[in-house]
Fold:
Amino acid sequence: MTVLALAPPPGTDRRSGATAAPVLTFGSDGVRRRRDRLATEEPLEIRAGGPGEAPLAVAVTMRTPGHDLELAVGFLAAEGLLGDGARPPVAARACAQDPNVVLVALRAPLDRSRLRGRIEVSSSCGVCGHAALDELGDRCGPVADGPRVAPETLIALPDRLRDHQRLFERTGGLHAAALFDERGTLLAVREDVGRHNALDKALGATLLAGPGAAPRPAIAMLSGRASYELVQKAAVAGVPIVCAVSAPSSLAVDAAHRLGVTLVGFLRGERFNVYARPDRIVL
Structure:
């Protein structure tokens, strides 16, 4: 048996919004190593405050670095936190200690009543993706080793997922997530306008079925791209393999390495890329 390993992706080129990463590509011509370019995903903490107020962390959002000041101001405007929409904030600047934090100075005091139940509030200081991953790893630990699946099992999953996307067939506007055992037996499939909601629903379906009602999920199949949050959800739920028909983000790959998740992207036709933990796939 040949065990192949992949190193975590190197540092991000913040100017290009892309991150280089090693990848194993499986196809009819065999398995080969190459370099891939991933869309960079990092969290941005938005802090805001009025005259004489210490900036308050009002939201953390995942994004591709670039135009962060515009993102912060636009977010606050859309949430009604700028007051008079015709008047821009006094200033927006990046935090000198952390490029993933933006400080916005408002012309009027921050209306904290608008934060309740509408915006994810974080009191953390200097939030960054790696710190969040370290905390998550401490909480849930790495996913257990095994099982090992055949490439043919993975190749069949996208068609099986599409066969159960009933609402997508009628609307064309929904994401889907499915859970399978290591043999490719379908355990649950759910659709939603949000990709995170679709996976949550599928996980919930297997849990509500009760212990012993179905095998433990081994594979999560996603209809779109693989983001950090989706890899995180799978790891916390103990699902060892995450597959997506589209690309993973850079932070998704980083999370997969740290949490021991096998991450497969561009699973289309008879080809796929393995970005982390290829040892669970019989190559």
